[in-house]
Amino acid sequence: MKNKFIILGLLASLMTTFSGCSDQLEDKFLSPEKSTDASIPGFFTSMLNNDRIRPSYWNTRTFLLTHTAVYTQTAFFMNANTAYQQSDSYTDQYWTDFYVSGSNGGGVMSTYTAMQVAYENLSEEEKAGFEIFMNAGKVVLINEASKMVDLWGDIPFSEAASLIENSSIQNGKFDDQQELYTTFISDLKTISDYFASTETTASFSKYDILLSGDVNMWRRYTNSLRLRLLMRISNVDESTAQTAIQEMLNNSATYPLLDGGDNGNYNPASEDVLLEPLTTYIDNLNSALTELPSHYAPDYLLNTAMLPVDDPRIPVMFDKFGKTVSNNFVPNEEFKAMPITFTSAQQEQQFANYSIVDSTTFMQNPSLPGIVMTASEVNFLKAEAYERWGGGDAGQAYETAIQQSVSFYYYLNNINETGLPVEEKPDANVITEFLATSGVAYEGSTQEKLQKIWIQKWLHLGFLQSVEAWAEYRRTGFPELTFPEANLSGYRTPPSRLVYPSSEKNYNSQNYQAVQAQDVRDGKIFWDVD
Q1: Each residue's pLDDT tens digit, 408-437
Q2: What is the CA 167 to chain-centroid distance, rounded?
Q3: Which of 40, 291, 438, 501 could form a disulfide with 92 if both were Cys (CB 3.0 to 4.6 A apart)?
Q4: Is 24 or 204 the better-scoring residue by pLDDT?
Q5: 3-state SS class at 319
Q6: How many Cβ atoms from other residues are within 10 Å of residue 250's Cβ?
């Protein structure tokens, strides 16, 4: 798909990428040029080695903090005329990084297709040894492809790598977004069944830089991703979602989830799906956050969602900040965020009086992992399912999800090994009191309880998972955020979807005509029916 020159350079790009990152991955895989057998594990490792998953400078600075974190208010943004204007060049790079392996992404679409070609060229006997890579690779592909659908809607998928498959130049058609979701959900069930009946291999354990070959974790991840996608479609096809979700939740032995064993005091390092930084990585998000700037505390998140209930996550999510007086730094007396109603002039003049995101947890933490999926998100999904359709204790799942979120953010804070001060996690009784606080306590009508689930999930996802946060915000309508109106015509409010990059419109113009009418920033993804 796209420019024929990009397509023709695809395999060469993959080989260059593998060669360049082999030292960083500490010889996790062999060079794919050396043998056909080595190529499939190598391709798989390359899919995982994705800076669109890790909290890299480029992805955070150019995509998250300028788009999805703004549209969800999970990060601060300047009240400027262009606040809601999509950057065509930056979103084009995100788009391209899904399809073609490059410096900022694993090129999961093209890389998985290369795996398929190598796999099909093996004998039936040889295929058995690589089947586990193909199934795990498809889970990675579905995770990233579903994000593309959530951001844009219809995307080229089924014909997106025709050159590798049949050596012909063919721009990919745009597949229907709802049909893609249906396929993804079905494929995940099949893959879950596969993982239930297979064992890991020495090769898979070596090349799996995400879960170290743990088949049980891959099975849980697969089921949890399916749960996420089913809940995503639950407002447009509730019957399908409800039936499948209840089947999963009522058969935990058959469909185990990444729920941390329903333990609020769990260990994120062993229970969540996290992509660890490369051993050579010594950078952090300081530049990404401060250049825009995005490091100031967002209004609704701190002032409305957290401060009134004395949220125990505040000390690891924010710093009080302050100002320098007579060469001495004087910290602010309390946590507080700048009002979102401030003009850009007020923001520039008064920023020192307000809080910033935490330095130890976010700004100066080279140990931050890429967050693929957490137990807290899974338990929020369970809580919503139980509240809407019964079958379990929604309140218990909700409280467990919040407890796990507290554990998760203190974990991120404590893995910082730079010497910055870390915070001690509050005692269990402090967290219990927090859960009983009005505004957090699981009480009220069904709608009020669902709103609490959705707001707490949005808070947990934050700017690092703002792609997911934006999808959930559009699906649920919560929290009820107020956005200052920008003065730029056509961009006065945030969009409800991204428009296709100009390069895709130009190079895939014939297929683009089929989706051109729906390519507007106020269009809606199929699951967004509120």
Answers
A1: 999 999 999 999 999 999 999 999 999 999
A2: 33
A3: 501
A4: 204
A5: strand
A6: 11
For the stretch 441-499, pLDDT in tens is 999 999 999 999 999 999 999 999 999 999 999 999 999 999 999 999 999 999 999 99
- Whether the CB-CB separation of 221 and 140 falls below 8 Å is answered with no
Q: Write phi, then psi, for 325 (nearest 5 degrees).
A: -125, 120
210 CB neighbour count, 10 Å cutoff: 25
Q: In this structure, which amino acid lies at residue 389?
A: W
Residues 176, 85, 463, 298: is their CA dihedral positive or negative? negative
Helix (H, G, I), strand (E, B) or coil at 236: coil
The SS3 of residue 397 is helix
Over residues 390-409, the mean pLDDT reads 98
Residue 323: name the closest of 333, 337, 313 by CA: 333
Contacts of 429 (CB under 8 A, 6+ apart): none
pLDDT, one tens digit per residue, over 85-113 is 999 999 999 999 999 877 677 799 999 99
Reading the block at residue 325, the tokens are: 């007086």
Helix (H, G, I), strand (E, B) or coil at 439: coil
| Structural contact between residues 261 and 220, judged by C-beta atoms closer than 8 angstroms | no
Could you tell me if 221 and 137 are in contact, meaning their C-beta atoms sit under 8 angstroms apart? no
How does DSSP classify residue 334? S
Q: What region does 156 belong to: left with phi over 0, alpha with psi -120 to 50, or beta?
A: beta
Q: Which domains does the chain have, with CATH numbers?
A: 40-282+364-518 (1.25.40.390)
- Contact between 373 and 225 under an 8 Å Cβ cutoff? The reply is yes
**Residue 460 to residues 4, 380, 463, Cα–Cα distance (Å):** 42, 10, 9
Taking only the tens place, the pLDDT of each residue in 40-75 is 999 999 999 999 999 999 999 999 999 999 999 999
Instruction: Quickly list H helices, 153-299.
Output: 162-166, 177-196, 202-207, 215-232, 238-249, 268-271, 286-290, 299
C-alpha 92/C-alpha 107 separation (Å) is 13
Could you tell me how many residues make up the chain?
A: 530
Query: Which pLDDT score is estimated for 160?
Result: 81
Is the separation of the CB atoms in 114 and 39 below 8 Å?
A: yes
